[in-house]
Amino acid sequence: MNLVLLGAPGAGKGTLAQQLVAEYGVAHISTGDLLRAAVKGGTALGIQAKKYMDAGELVPDQLVIDLVKERLAADDAQKGFILDGFPRNTVQAVTLDSELSGLHRELDCALLVDVASNVIIDRLSSRRACRDCGYTGTAADEVCPKCAGEMYQRDDDKPETIANRLDVYEKNTAPLVEYYRGQGKLKIVDGQGKIDAVYAAAKEVLGL
Ligand code: AMP
Question: What is the pLDDT of residue 155?
Fold first, then answer.
């Protein structure tokens, strides 16, 4: 399974990726998670990336591409991978295609998790994440239901940044739907139902 997950921020790509990884044992490559870890670790990459992330802008392509290349080469990605949050624009998509072909691999499909924009805004505003295990929950979770860690609101889920992230998505990332449709690789799942229902629908669409 070599899969790209497409969809607006808050569409549920991370949750779906975690479910697929748990069941099929492929690698979850989330550029957002990798960048947040770099910021938390205070690495040179994290220091460079932070200002873009805080503003809801895309981090420069080359920084993100290097991260993805490194993860694709890791042992756990040899069995398959789920890219979550990458590619985010056409340059990244074209680079991914050429990188994979250099590795004699290719994408099976790009799955669009389709959610209406008013639902996205509600979800992002109430989204909370666990500082310890990364679990994604809502404002109703006082502590993490998985590990009892502290739940917090990502800086980029604050109202002033949400609007910009959605704008960046529409301008840069939404065109990838047509990019993958043109390659005959696009599949679409309705991402508005309950978590388990979306997962079941995604498996059906993916033929799993
Ligand atoms: P996410 O967790 O996927 O919503 O990503 C959080 C933030 O990380 C984004 O708003 C961007 O600033 C940055 N980011 C994540 N993935 C990418 C990417 N593929 N290209 C550029 N920036 C990215």
Answer: 85
Give the span between the Cα atoms of 78 and 105, in whole angstroms: 10
Local structure of residue 188 (DSSP, 8 states): E
Does the residue 157 lie in any domain? Answer: no
For residue 50, what pLDDT is reported? Answer: 96
CA proximity to 174, closest of 112, 125, 81: 112
- Looking at residue 109, what is its pLDDT? 97
The helix (run of H) or strand (run of E) holding residue 133 is none
Q: Ligand 1 centroid to 34 CA: how many Å?
A: 9
Q: Which atom of ligand 1 is nearest to the CA of 68?
A: 19
Structural domain includes residue 152: no
- 111 within a domain of the structure (yes/no): yes
Query: Which residue range forms the structural domain that includes residue 36?
Result: 2-115+173-206
Q: Which residues line ligand 1 (CB under 6 A)?
A: 9, 31-32, 35, 52-53, 56-59, 64, 85-86, 88, 92, 156, 165
| pLDDT computed for residue 154 by the predictor | 87
Residue type, 5: L
CATH at 190? 3.40.50.300
Q: Which helix (H) or strand (E) covers residue 138, if one does? A: strand 136-138
* Count of the separate structural domains present in the chain: 1
DSSP-assigned beta bridge partners for residue 110: 4, 186
